[in-house]
Write a structure and sequence with these properties.
The chain is mainly alpha-helical. It has a domain at 59-169 and 221-336: A middle domain of Talin 1. Helices cover 79% and strands 2% of the residues. It has a two-stranded antiparallel sheet with strand order 1-4. The chain has a two-stranded antiparallel ribbon with strand order 2-3. Helix 5 runs antiparallel to helix 11 and helix 7 (186-221) packs antiparallel against helix 8. The protein is globular and about 55 Å long. The chain starts with 9 loop residues before the first helix and ends with a helix. The relative contact order is 0.23. Mean pLDDT is 82; it is low at 173-177.
């Protein structure tokens, strides 16, 4: 049976893409609402929920793409270099989108965001270090299974640190308002968890459809290489993070927005690339080491510096800088790093 998005009619493909995108918006909004309620019940910060549970959930498109590509590489169903280029480009491309364009959009719509100083050390600095690690491991021209194991162990160790830190230091501020309709019983909390899981499943399925549609559009338009991953699949893979972050803004919860975007930028390379490399190993295209990862590190460092000197505050002017950095990145990528 041929799926609608496998049609050769570009109009039909785009139409189903719009429907899938609508489901993505609605389901992501529901996920955020339920997780805010659960965070209240378990006395957890929504930032912690965003950095862990939500960041992994919204990274499933990237993670599943890595798993599928790695299995196909082992089965010789896809060229080793082509498969590696596409998923690595999509992974790092998605990170750049989130750190610049999406964060810029979120800041613009929210009218400004506030980052706690501790968040800069606990979350944003590890995000930058993660991409430095990816460069160091990729200098050899490939991600070996040992490299994959290093990335996975780093992911597990960091998430354990987040949990330890949350249990030890998190205290609700006295003036912090209680979440409306927060579950008061274990049964109510279980119901919220199941509904969040169901909504999360819809978010992931919708994102996968949008991802498939993006791949189909790429096939029709005949664009190729790691540039495909960066420009098309990277943007499509970042849609769950975009919708979840916007839902956090809508619900006036910056913790979900910030935690999801920063957490996903740690989860994508450590868990996604780590799992894929552990299964099949990856060939690392030169543009990834020469431009994509260095730009990710540079923009992260610039953002960190801005937030440090502004005492954690970023306004609309900052959002324009972030979005400008994304478009500069894409233009330079197309002009100077189009060939793997």
């Amino acid at each position: 049976m041929v799926m609608p998005w496998e049609s050769s009619n570009l109009f039909v493909i785009i139409l189903f893409g719009v429907v899938a995108l609508g489901l993505l918006v609605v389901s992501a909004d529901e996920v955020v609402k339920r997780l805010i309620r659960l965070a209240e019940y378990f006395n957890l910060s929504t930032t912690f929920m965003g950095m862990t549970v939500v960041s992994v959930a919204t990274s499933i498109p990237e993670i599943s793409s890595h798993l599928i590509a790695s299995v196909n590489i082992l089965a010789d169903k896809i060229d080793y270099r082509v498969g590696s280029s596409i998923v690595l480009g999509a992974n790092i491309g998605s990170n750049v989108v989130q750190q610049t364009l999406i964060l810029g959009i979120v800041v613009l719509l929210a009218g400004g965001l506030y980052f706690r100083r501790y968040f800069l050390w606990k979350s944003m600095l590890p995000m930058i270090v993660t991409h430095v690690l990816c460069i160091i491991l990729g200098i050899s021209g490939m991600y070996s299974r040992i490299d994959g194991m290093i990335l996975l162990v780093s992911f597990l160790a960091y998430n354990y640190f987040l949990y330890w830190d949350e249990r030890r230091f998190y205290k609700k501020e006295p003036e912090q308002a209680a979440t409306p309709d927060a579950p008061g019983t274990c049964q109510a909390a279980l119901k919220d968890a199941l509904l969040a899981l169901a909504a999360m499943s819809i978010t992931v399925i919708s994102a996968q459809i949008v991802l498939s549609i993006s791949e189909r559009v790429v096939e029709i338009t005949r664009v190729g290489g790691s540039l495909v991953g960066v420009i098309t699949l990277g943007v499509a893979s970042a849609l769950p993070e975009l919708m979840t972050a916007l839902a956090g803004v809508k619900n006036k919860d910056q913790g979900i927005s910030l935690g999801t975007l920063v957490g996903s930028n740690i989860t994508n390379p450590l868990l996604g690339v780590g799992l894929g490399a552990l299964i099949s190993t990856y060939w690392v295209p030169a543009p990834l080491l020469q431009w994509d990862l260095p730009w990710e590190i540079l923009t992260g460092a610039i953002l960190w510096g801005i937030l440090w000197f502004t005492k954690g505050k970023i306004g609309r002017s900052g959002s324009y800088i972030l979005m400008g950095m994304y478009f500069f990145y894409i233009i330079a990528r197309v002009l100077f790093f189009a060939v793997d």
